[in-house]
Amino acid sequence: MTEPRDRGNWAKPVNEFRVGETTGDAVIGNVEGRRPTGPLQGFGRLWQKTYQVLVPGHSPEEIISVWKERFGEFWPPSNKFYAPAAGLAPGEVALITGGRGPARVTTGVRVIYADERSWSYMTPEGHPWAAIITFSADEVDDDVTAVMIQLMVRANDPLYEVSFKLYTSRLEDKIWTHTLTQLAGHFGSDAPVEMAVNLIDKRRQWKQFGKIWKNSAIRTLLRRDRHVNARREAGTATPVPEEHPGEISKEESL
Amino acid sequence: MPTTNLTTGIRDVAEGVRVIDIRGEITAFSDEEMSKAHEEAGDGAKAVVLNFTDLEYMNSGGIGLLVTTLIRAQRSGHALRAYGLSEHYQEIFNLTRLDEAISIFDDEASAVSGRRP
């Protein structure tokens, strides 16, 4: 059988997220040891949300290369992205801080797929979403590239599902619209961001109700996300295996 | 404009069970071909079996497409099963936890019967 040409693009499966060395104020407690969750896990309704902007005069490969290198720079100021040292490559784990005050949450993502025109990540238990989120670019016309962010997401637990309806769905739209606007502007495009939303599965997965105990927003509020950081500093944390994804080395923020 | 390199064929293999033979690539651009095949195969079926033996390439957009196909199957009330996945693609199903929802079998006979030897 011929070797599949996507072999090098995919991460290896893991049972738990593992975070390497961290810098600055990156908090790992809501990521370390958590199971990956995708759109078939999670509690809430399953949504597909697509955000797209057109960028003339630049190839998909060029845009994706810059985007991967400077991912956190295009985010809104309320969010902070701690990129892995090896960059957004398959298997790497990045940490995220989002929101402000009592709505602040520390979490992370793991890159599951990356090539020259796209990459995708999955989220851990406790993240607001059980999701696969894909960032991609493709030619749509002569010299015009469509840059896209596509989310397949369920709220990870009932609390997030309620907040999704009340607030976080619109916040998500603002974050990604801002991101694409900034990215397009970097390449000289002032095209508007277009959005499409599809409800893929209106059923809620009640068997996932118990995920609420891993809610990262609550753990952040109660500062229980910092225990792993404290144990590492005290030298009492479980050693990280040598083979692990994601050594965090730089902080990217606006 | 990107196009798909996916072709499919449908076979009646047992009462209420049809196989979709997948050839080529599964990406986000394969939606139309895959939807059409699944709609036809699933009509009145109790199970649809996806044959991945001739799958050449899949990116993460392809995973999203399989998620959507699974939801459609659940909505229609028939099972979705798979066989013919290489070790590489079984790993991807495991990575994305798709294998928790789509049962994977070693061969067509067991996928059709829904029973492992």
Describe the 3D structure.
Chain A is of the alpha+beta class and 254 residues long. Chain A has helices at residues 60-69, 158-186, 216-221, 227-234; strands at 36-37, 46-56, 80-84, 93-98, 105-115, 118-124, 129-141, 144-155, 194-201, 248-252. Chain A has four helices and ten strands; from the N terminus they run ββαββββββαβααβ. In chain A, strands 1, 2, 3, 4, 5, 6, 7, 8, 9 and 10 form a ten-stranded antiparallel β-sheet that branches. The termini of chain A are far apart. Chain B is an alpha/beta fold and 117 residues long. Chain B has one domain: 2-Layer Sandwich (Transcription Regulator spoIIAA). Chain B has helices spanning 31-42, 60-76, 87-95, 108-113; strands at residues 6-14, 17-26, 47-58, 79-83, 103-105. The model of chain B has no long low-confidence stretch (mean pLDDT 94). The interface between A and B is medium-sized, with 38 and 30 residues.
Task: Kindly estimate the percentage of residues of chain A that lie in beta strands according to DSSP.
Answer: 25-35%
Which spans of chain B of ≥5 residues are poorly predicted at pLDDT below 50? Answer: none
Q: What is the overall number of helices of chain B?
A: 4
Q: Which of globular, elongated, flat, extended, rod-shaped describes the shape of chain B?
A: globular
Total domain modules of chain A: 1
Beta content of chain B comes to 25-35%
CATH architecture classification name of chain A: 2-Layer Sandwich
Q: Percent range for helical residues of chain B?
A: 25-40%
Summarize the structure.
Chain A is of the alpha+beta class and 254 residues long. Helix content of chain A is 21%, strand content 31%.
Question: How would you summarize the topology of this molecule?
Answer:
The complex is a heterodimer of chains A (254) and B (117).
Chain A: E1 36-37, E2 46-56, H1 60-69, E3 80-84, E4 93-98, E5 105-115, E6 118-124, E7 129-141, E8 144-155, H2 158-186, E9 194-201, H3 216-221, H4 227-234, E10 248-252
Antiparallel strand pairs in A: 1-6, 2-8, 2-9, 3-4, 3-10, 4-5, 5-6, 6-7, 7-8
Chain B: E1 6-14, E2 17-26, H1 31-42, E3 47-58, H2 60-76, E4 79-83, H3 87-95, E5 103-105, H4 108-113
Parallel strand pairs in B: 2-3, 3-4, 4-5
Antiparallel strand pairs in B: 1-2
